[in-house]
Structure formats: C-alpha cells, structure tokens
Amino acid sequence: MNRRVNHTATKKPKTKQVAATRTSAKLFKNKSSAVGKHSQYSIFQAWVTHHKYSCVNSLQRLLHPPWQSFLTWMVVAIALVLPLVLYLGLNHAQQLGSAWKNSGQLSAFLLHQTKPLAITQLQQRLSTYPELQHIELITPEQAKQEFQQHSGLGNVLQSLENNPLPAVLTLLPADDFNNPESLEALKSKLEAEPLIELVQLDIAWLQRLHQIMGLAQQLVLVLGALLSLGVLLVIGNTIRLAIENRRHEIVVIKMVGGTDGFVRRPFLYTGFWYGIGGGLLALILLFISVQWISDSFQQLVELYENKYSLTFFNLKILVLVVFGSGFIGWSGAWLAVEKHLKEIEPS
Amino acid sequence: MIRFDSVSKRYSEGYDALNQVSFELDAGEMAFLTGHSGAGKSTLLKLIMLIERVSRGQVFIGNRPLNRVTSSQIPYLRRQIGVVFQNHHLLFDRSVFNNVALPLQISGMRQRDQARRVRAALDKVGLLNKEHDNPLSLSGGEQQRIGIARAVVNKPSILLADEPTGNLDPELSAEIMQLFQDFNGVGTTVLIATHDIALIRRMSYRTLTLEQGRLLQERDEQ
To answer: Which residues cross the membrane (chain A) (predicted)?
Structure first.
C-alpha cells in the first residue's frame, strides 16, 4: 500500500468545492481581508486605537502594583535631580552675577601734585560726561591715611617727606555704559584728559567669574548628558526584563499575526511612563531640596544686603524636564526592544 | 489552498526535517497529517506559518508562493491562518474573552465588532458562559476549546492544528474533532497533525503520512 506520492500534486474533488473557491478568492485580496467587511474601519484608526490602548494599559501595568515601578522611578529621579540641582544653582549664580556685572568701576589716577583747584575743575568737566553717574574724589591725604591703616606700611609713609600718593577720582559709570566695551571706550576717553595719568578698569575679576560660570555650565551639561545616558540604560534594562517576562505573550502575539509594531508599542509606552514618572518624581525631590536649603540661602544673601530669594524653575523648564525624561525613557525602551524583540520568534 | 512543491527543509545543524514533499490541499478540504514524532509534522506546519522557511522547493498558500513573502508581510499572512496548539498557548494574565479577542485586537477591529465575534466563537466551542473566567481556572479540554475559538475568531481560510488532542482523553478528543469537522463544514481548509492513529481511523479523511521527512502514502479511504 505504501506508494510514494509523485511530485505532481494530487487533487481530489470535494463537495465543498463551491464554498471553498469563494474563500480562496477572498484570501489575500487585501491585507485586512481577515477583518472583512470591517475594512472601512481604517487601518489608521486601528493604529490610533492600539496606541491609546497601549498608552493606558502600560501605565496601568506599572501602577498595579506600583512598588516595583516606584523603585525604577526613584532611580531615574535621583539620576535627574543631581544635574538639575547643579543647573538650578548655576542659574542663581548667573542671576547674582548679572547683578554684580553692573558694578564696574573706574579709578582715575591724577598727575602727581595736581592743584586742588585744577581737580575741582576736572571734576566739574567730568560731571558733564553722560557716561558717568557718580564721581568721588580721594585726596592724597585721604589716600595716605587709608594706606597707613590697611597696608601695615604706615611707618614707611611717615618717614617720607612728601606724600607720594596722587589724587584719585573714583568714577561710577552710568547704567547704559556699564559693559566691558563701553568701559574700555570710556577708559581711553578719560586717559586723553591731560590731568589724568592712568585709568584703571576693575573688571578682570568679573571676567574671571564669567569664565568660571561658563566652565560650570559645561560641567552641568556633561554631567547631565552622562546621567541621562544612565537613565536611558536603566530604563532599557528594565524594559529588557519586561520583555523577558512577557516572552510567551510576544510569541503568541506573533503567532496570531501581530506585527513588530504591535508587539513593540506597549514596551515603548512602558519606557515612556518610566521616564515621565521619574521626571515628575525628580521635580518633587528637587522642590523638597529647594525648600530645605531656602532658609539658609536667604540668610546668606541677607549678609550681602541683597534682596534675593531662591526661586524654582519656570513652567517651561518643568515641562521640558518631564517630557525630556519621557523621551529618554522611550529611547531606552526602543534600544531594548530593537535588540531583544527580534530574538523572540515562535519556534 | 495549500500546495507543497518538492519541499525540503534542512536545519542548520544538517538535519533533514523534510525531503522532497509534494502535496496539495484543496480549499475546503480537511486532512490529517501523521507520522512518528520527529517525522517532520511540526516542520511542515511551521513552513505554512512561515515560522520556518523552506530550504528547497515551494510552498503556496492560495496560489501565493511563500518564499516571496517578506518578513514584514508575515503577520498579515498569519492572520489568514488559524492555529491550534497542543499546549494551546493561552495567556493567563487575561480573561478568556481577551484571549479569544487577541487576533481581532491585532487586526484592529472595532471593539463592539470584536465582542460580537468573540461571543460567536465562544458560543461555537460551547464556552460562552466562561468568557470572564481566567483560562487557568478551566480544564484541559476547555482550554483547548478556547484555543480553537481564538484560532477561528477572525474566520481564517485555513485552520492548522498541531496535536490538538495530545493531552486529552478519547471522549474529549472526539469533541474537539467534531469542532474541526464543523469548521470544515463551513468551508475552512483544515489540516490536523496528530499521531493518534485510532482517532484518524475513526474518521474518514485524507491522511498524509510522513516518515523521516518523506511523504509516504495517501489514504483516501478508511
């Protein structure tokens, strides 16, 4: 009885042939033929529906029970708080710095033994300068007293016959001219005055401060980038475990015709929610920290007779932090999904 | 509907699972695929599902050559084919209803249409009253029927079954087979892989027998 089947296929007429041909014709007519008459419900709508479903469902999964997710959120939050605290600190330092920036002063050293009358005339002439808002004279005598008090070389000065110190005019520039370029121009203009021997512009320390701020800013950026990468990897790893836990589900979904996108979607949303949750938690932690140090900060600022209070980020930055974190989470999930989902195939 | 044309499948380890297999299953036909374990039954089903690709030869589904199907098209092909597994592959994190609805969720059917289809499929396998239960709470036979409901819920043209009665006693097996006959009765092409010879003998259907990767004989009559 064992006859080998030859290579040409054997056909066998059946009574169900009519119904069957109909089915056969229907087969592969279009991609959604399995949906049949529901195809007017567009693929796009189905896509949107599944996005909505994945979005809500993945959040529900994270919240039931929330403890496991909370740990991941906490890790993400702590990693984000560190650069945020530094950024906030830097922000305040810059605001304080810009308040100090307008404290550029000029010291004009007059020729030695300029007559007091000539000094008065010079003062009057300088007061017409629109660039200056305040002029203060330090006479050689005042300078000598001050020098004796502060330098510790009082006796040396005592032993001199003549006062070697010149008169000095301390000049406060008008607000509009209180920037490095205008001050340089003003300096040249003042040096053209016959009675003025030397003008000293005291903004070098300000420039140095700005350099340090720039450096700190870059440091915050580098730190932020590194810690964001950390967040990305943490969420990626969490998603990898989630994929592993749902391996069977993935196999079944692929077996009954789920596309890669369909399988991928819930995991991407899970990563997104890890990021969003971590971002929100980071802001809460940051807010608590700011409240905590606010009082001591206030006391410090009052020492400098400065009316200044510690403020939180504005809304734009808050939204940016939360959604930026969400985006990082989504990217981390994407990496994990790309790497591991391909490996899971029905077998 | 299903046509194998000199199909060979060699796994990368050098093991020939199928060797020059040719047959054709007409639309609306029902047939058994039998042979000892390791004879290539599962491999043959996997080639139809595109879980595996042929090494040589051609497989056609509804005149469509499967080696032209790209991997991104595979999901859409699988939606045309319902599959019933020996271990039913149900998901225990969701209700019976949601297990059966899964293929419809994947194809993006509207919710209320889904509900109608799912209830129809559950009604057909006689488990409409269990739709809210977790499949874990059901018996083996019931779980298998849920698996069948899921396989047929989107009205596939082809229904494949891999040892669907493997874990069931003869009485339950007969019930399951009756279900397959019913679906075949409405025009679905059915191919059932099984080594339950007694079961095959009781039913007069075409039988494809594999032995060491070769198609041995065709039994057209009982």
So the answer is: 70-90, 215-239, 272-293, 313-337
Q: Do A49 and B108 touch (CB under 8 A)?
A: yes
pTM, rounded to two decimals: 0.72
The whole domain housing B147 covers 90-154
CA distance B9 to B16: 6
Residue B117 lies in a domain: yes
Which A residues in the span 29-68 are in contact with B, Cβ-Cβ below 8 Å? 31-36, 38, 41, 43, 45-47, 49-50, 53
Model ipTM value: 0.90
pLDDT tens per residue, range A187-220: 888 888 888 888 887 766 777 777 888 898 899 9
Helix A66-101, helix A204-245: angle, nearest 10: 170
Packing angle between helix B140-152 and helix B111-124, nearest 10 degrees? 130
Task: Quick: pLDDT tens for B103-148.
Answer: 998 888 888 889 999 999 999 898 999 999 999 999 888 999 999 9
Evaluate whether residue B66 is within a structural domain.
no
> What is B19-32 written as a DSSP string?
EEEEEEE-TT-EEE
Termini Cα distance of chain A: 34
Look at the domain A105-202 and name its fold. Answer: Alpha-Beta Plaits (3.30.70)
